[in-house]
Amino acid sequence: MNKTILIKRMKTRRKLHRITLLTTVPLFAFANQPEKETFSRLNQIDALQQQRQQQNQQVQEKILQPQADVHLDTKNYERLTLSNKETPCYPIHHVTLIDYPSEDFSSKSQFQWALNQASQDLKLTLPHCFGGEGLGILMKQIQNRIIEKGYVTTRVVTQEQDLKSGALVLTVIPGKVGDTLVEDNGRVPRFSRLHALTGFTFSKGDLLNVRDMEQSLENLKRVPTAEANFELLPSKTDIGVSDIKISYQQALPFRINLSLDDSGSKSTGQYQVSGTLSIDNIFSANDLFYTSFTHSLKTHNDEKGGRASKNLTFIILSLSAIGPYRLHKPITVIVKKF
């Protein structure tokens, strides 16, 4: 069963903050302590046990929440050069870049930086005698610079003009975001508007940048059981506008992981058994919840009168929160109770 959601209107640009909440409660700390056991030794055992618990927790996080890395290569490796011997050609003393639909030649384009970089790449000095080939090379180099920054639907064109005036005007048609169409291909459709609110880093009317698409896919795919891809479609609304089609699918959101290792000590039990239950998208907000339990197994080689170790990590919640800035590093809040 397919579920299609049309996100017609989004709020202003959103950047995502990732919040991880970890609450760990050690249980059953004591079992037949010798009277002569000092507090110093107890503290050492606690510190070692906490260190092992943190290391195990980091391993669990890597297993349960692998990092989704989405990157599209927009680098152009073609080397373009301008010829100084074109015929026929027109001496150009001034090059202007404007944005469509503006006809005010005095207003600079928001992509002026691309013209500056292209001029440096081509070693362009004015006046320069441009023919048809040279004009095409200049436009292509500007276009390449714009695409490299992720604006893959933005185009550079030239309008009808008299080059005998010595002025060249190039027009940029900014590529913008139209409607967002989401197609849920899962057996049980799970995509909701909350997924879009916490996952998409773009809004209708924004300049379309493929980097926003990559970030949005990473947010949706951050949950291990979810898969997402996007496709750009021409819009029928206006020049330069593209609709975004998101194909989304989530498998069964429940996962169980069991492990046994010998990372413990003789005081707390050398063998440690761990179990983890994780649930993806429990709040439909690209979130991850899991609960884990660690328990030491006592053997005849462990110290008599030692302490049995049990730890219950009962919630780890990873959410995407709306905020005005892009956060590159996760915020980790750790609350411990003893």
Automatic annotation (TrEMBL):
Presence of keyword Transmembrane: yes
GO MF annotations, alphabetized: protein transmembrane transporter activity
GO BP annotations listed: protein secretion by the type V secretion system
Keywords noted in UniProt: Cell outer membrane, Membrane, Protein transport, Signal, Transmembrane, Transmembrane beta strand, Transport
Compartment(s) where it occurs, according to its Swiss-Prot or TrEMBL record: Cell outer membrane
Segments forming domain POTRA: 90-175
Cytoplasm among keywords: no
Signal sequence bounds: 1-31
GO cellular component, one term: type V protein secretion system complex
Taxonomy, superkingdom: Bacteria
One matching Pfam family: ShlB
The family this protein is said to belong to: Belongs to the TPS (TC 1.B.20) family.
Protein name as annotated: ShlB family hemolysin secretion/activation protein
Protein source organism: Rodentibacter pneumotropicus
